[in-house]
């Protein structure tokens, strides 16, 4: 059963974080229905598609985090409530990219992978809003990425570990928030930051617009990626056989 509040049931007396979630529900669902995400959830991610995803996301996070730091150093009253450095993902992404590139590819065949044009467009949008007269638009991008990371990270990490047969959680630092002891409390704090914008209709509107646009940039990236169902099927079959066939005695 879908327990999400339909968009047409958004109430004006709801807090902004709730109204934002409802207003982005449709485009959020579109992102979840992309072929890559559906394949990822079925365990069909290949090393190539996963590495490409990491390469596409890294410059986006670097741009968001650089400008959030910069604006908060300038004492941006609107953005300071969102300055949760424990959410930053750039360094984790770098570690994962290094590991997947070095240990999970064959004959250097993925050495020439680079961030895609869709990633560059996403980065340019983040940069432009952060340097604009309305830097609060950056909040829309922070919301789309960080709350998504917090909400689905552990599930996605388990799927990625199994589908790509990653050992000891290596290559999955992106999904680990080592500095956060309580994920639920962190999500609550982020939503409380969103609610500091409540009451200003203009701020609420532009953050909502930007969050929807941010989802669309993510959809463009997802649509350019592909899973590898044949590899996944073989791995799952191989694991099944290993579990069913007892090891031979070497007496």
Task: List unreliable stretches of 5+ residues.
Answer: 1-8, 227-251
Q: In total, how many domains does the architecture comprise?
A: 1
What is the name of the CATH class?
Answer: Mainly Alpha
Helix % is 55-70%
**Looking at the structure, what is the overall shape?**
globular
Question: CATH superfamily, please?
Answer: Heme oxygenase-like
Number of strands: 0
Q: What summary fits the major beta sheet?
A: none
Using only CA atoms, what is the Rg? 20 Å
What structural category arises from helix and sheet content? mainly alpha
CATH fold category name: Heme Oxygenase, Chain A
How much of the sequence is in beta strands?
under 5%
SSE string: HHHHHHHHHH
Q: Specify the CATH architecture.
A: Up-down Bundle
| Distance between the amino and carboxyl termini | 55 Å
Number of helices: 10
Average of the residue pLDDT scores? 85
Descriptive overview:
It contains 10 helices and no strands. The radius of gyration is 20 Å and the shape is globular. It is an all-alpha fold. The chain has helices spanning 16-23, 25-32, 35-41, 47-73, 90-103, 117-130, 138-163, 183-194, 201-223, 229-244. The chain has one domain: Heme Oxygenase, Chain A, CATH 1.20.910. The N and C termini lie far apart (55 Å). Helix 2 (25-32) runs parallel beside helix 9 and helix 7 packs antiparallel against helix 8.
């Amino acid at each position: 059963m879908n327990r999400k509040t339909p968009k047409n049931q958004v109430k004006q007396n709801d807090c902004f974080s709730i109204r934002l979630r409802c207003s982005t529900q449709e485009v959020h669902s579109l992102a979840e229905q992309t072929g890559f995400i559906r394949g990822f959830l079925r365990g069909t991610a290949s090393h190539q598609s996963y590495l490409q995803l990491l390469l596409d996301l890294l410059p986006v996070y670097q741009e968001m985090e650089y400008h959030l730091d910069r604006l908060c150093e300038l004492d941006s009253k609107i953005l300071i409530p969102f300055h949760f450095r424990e959410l930053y993902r750039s360094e984790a992404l770098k570690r994962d990219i290094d590991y997947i590139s070095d240990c999970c590819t064959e004959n250097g065949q993925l050495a020439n992978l680079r961030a895609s044009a869709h990633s560059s467009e996403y980065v340019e949008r983040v940069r432009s809003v952060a340097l604009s007269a309305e830097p609060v638009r950056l909040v829309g991008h922070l919301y789309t990425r960080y709350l998504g990371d917090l909400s689905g990270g552990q599930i996605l990490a388990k799927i990625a570990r199994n589908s790509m047969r990653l050992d000891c959680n290596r290559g999955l630092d992106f999904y680990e928030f080592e500095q956060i002891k309580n994920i639920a409390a962190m999500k609550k704090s982020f939503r409380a930051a969103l609610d500091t914008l409540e009451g200003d209709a203009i701020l609420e509107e532009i953050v909502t617009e930007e969050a929807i646009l941010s989802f669309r940039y993510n959809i463009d990236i997802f649509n350019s990626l592909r899973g590898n169902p044949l590899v996944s099927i073989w791995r799952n079959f191989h694991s099944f056989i290993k579990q069913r066939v007892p090891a031979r005695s070497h007496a």
